[in-house]
């Protein structure tokens, strides 16, 4: 009975469903990652995306050169300045992605039951009979009966814009396939995915390394999305590469799980990575459709217990061309939040979709509604139980801060941090209110000069904690998160001790 009672602690009244949604200062606590591209790179559109709730901008290097992405990023900086909305930068690697190369960019019509040849000869033109690809080892990797999927940009699963092939025979380096459904491929680049086959290419390609060490370093990227992560070693290798670049040793690595291989080694990858992106587009091809939800629920739970962000992709594909999501998609977004997802990643919907701002706005509203009925009490107990006893000093402080904030109905938690670890631990316990991180830089010396280090480019300060707290409170008031007579929970270090205190604000 007790377990059932816990599950029903937040009954949903039918009346509340009929009430209009109340606008919050934060569109949602869940983060929204928007992929910037052709339809979302002007200052005006990016500003709209930021106001609608985008807090991470993703730059996908599967297409476009560094100059193109730099131009988009400069526009993002202008939009951040004008809207005063902070936005992190995520660089998404190409990795061992297989691609069909269509230099002429003419649409290619493929008919069911006809044959098409996949060839590594990129000098050939893409036609209905032959498709040149960027990988010379395909003929060695596949065999008769294997399934190959080809789709534009990101797989939509739409039967008219993506095609299923079955390998009929291998002829030298060419692979002859029978087409399973009629479709038209449009654009210059199509991604190719072979179901449950190991591709012998490095996870961090030479092209990726070049982009990271130039564009990534120049722009001090916040996140690296590591495409097609298959082993923990992939993450270690990427981390080692970033640390050698110096400027990027604070950059977080999010492992993108896209196939059976990554799924098989999920636990070890989770230990090494800073966060996980569940790439449901590719996973939906490697896994039978009825198994995708199981992986999502298991992976998100593991991420939650490890205190690492879980990002879910491919939620509102239909909004690439439509102003409203389907009912199933809206439910899917809400269920992702109720499962414990920390962020929703939008790909084609904002990259080349017709309604990038509206998509972010609607996804944010759905997340906010789901958060209202998220069973935080059950989640908190489960997380604490998983951590076990004795808790580490920091873990204990973080969980106490969240518990205190919920008990006194605080409007915000303010945390003083230098590395961001304390703030991330507080977020692990899913507070129902926003967390404001105040970055206190650490002072270092090499005997010749003093320097500051911190998770961000923190300003040097000789101020006391109290004066810094006042700055944080003033920022909260200006932002509209904190009002007169609100209670605020503060988590800070005093000497060698960590302190959680509750402040009641006056007028």
Automatic annotation (TrEMBL):
Q: What is its EC number?
A: 2.7.1.40
- Similarity remark: Belongs to the pyruvate kinase family.
The top of its lineage is:
Eukaryota, Viridiplantae, Streptophyta, Embryophyta, Tracheophyta
Q: What's the name of the protein?
A: Pyruvate kinase
Q: Which cofactor does it need?
A: K(+)
Instruction: Kindly tell me the pathway this chain contributes to.
Output: Carbohydrate degradation; glycolysis; pyruvate from D-glyceraldehyde 3-phosphate: step 5/5
Judging by the UniProt lineage, the source's domain of life is Eukaryota
Reaction(s) catalysed by this chain's protein: pyruvate + ATP = phosphoenolpyruvate + ADP + H(+)
Top-tier EC class: transferase
